[in-house]
Design goal:
Elongation Factor Tu (Ef-tu), domain 3, 2 domains, 6-stranded antiparallel β-barrel
């Protein structure tokens, strides 16, 4: 697939994973490393970055114009996809995954590749737990829900006290940034921030490192090319967990 031009793909299946999250399966496989993303063009609406949940699918929560347009589509409709982009999760040895909400999506390829030993999965409520059964089939699964309807009653970060972080070579994390910031604080306190691998989401225009719209403070690292996965020690004392930028470049608080 040419990285500069979107390839037209046909949606072959739409899976309602939770009340707010759907997986869109398309008729082309993309050779990608776990954690890489693609730029998805929704004709007439926008082009946005989305993580691959498999070589031929994206898993999406309806949060804006592009995702709302996707949710209005049906099998047989066409979208554009270009990529893959980014570095993915460079894991080796034993891996702990921490996912919140739709953030479990870029972590799923790690699970299906047999690279996750323990997975801490969080959601607002039981019906919003994403990929729980698929994860349970391949890894040790621990669950937390904000309302206590499944697993631990509380935040997924609280489950970290139930595992020995020294047992893991890498801790792969994706979810709401406020959740990931809390995970990083735990790792930093335990002296192992460098073992954390965090998948960031930022506004992107090009996806190939040219436009600079996804550069992060203070180092100017580009989420599309230098990330989207960054080690925790790089994110300490950065904009991470504090603010991001919108399409105009203006800061908005996380």
């Amino acid at each position: 697939m040419h990285e500069q031009m979107p390839a037209g793909v046909v949606i072959t299946d739409i899976v309602e994973e939770t009340p707010s999250i759907r997986t869109f399966v398309f008729d082309r496989e993309i050779a990608a490393r776990p954690g890489q993303f693609v730029m998805v063009w929704v004709p007439g609406v926008d082009e946005v970055p989305m993580a691959l949940s498999s070589p031929s699918s994206i898993t999406v929560q309806k949060v804006g114009d592009a995702t709302a347009a996707l949710f209005a589509m049906h099998e047989g409709d066409r979208i554009g996809v270009r990529g893959p982009y980014g570095n993915g999760f460079p894991v080796s040895g034993r891996t702990l995954a921490v996912g919140g909400g739709v953030g479990a999506s870029p972590l799923l390829p790690l699970v299906t590749a047999g690279q996750v030993d323990t997975f801490l999965l969080g959601a607002r409520t039981a019906s919003e737990l994403l990929f729980a059964e698929r994860i349970r089939d391949a890894a040790t699964l621990m669950v937390a829900t904000d309302d206590g309807t499944a697993g631990h009653h509380g935040f997924v970060t609280e489950l970290m006290a139930r595992v020995d972080l020294a047992d893991f070579n890498h801790i792969c994390v994706c979810g709401p940034e406020i959740m990931m910031t809390a995970v990083l604080a735990v790792l930093d306190r335990e002296g192992c921030a460098e073992r954390g691998l965090f998948s960031l989401h930022r506004y992107m225009k090009c996806g190939v490192g040219l436009c600079g719209s996804c550069c992060t403070d203070p180092h100017g690292l580009r989420v599309c090319r230098d990330g989207p996965v960054f080690s925790g020690d790089v994110l300490l004392d950065s904009e991470f967990g504090h603010y991001a930028r919108d399409a105009s470049g203006s800061r908005h608080r996380i």
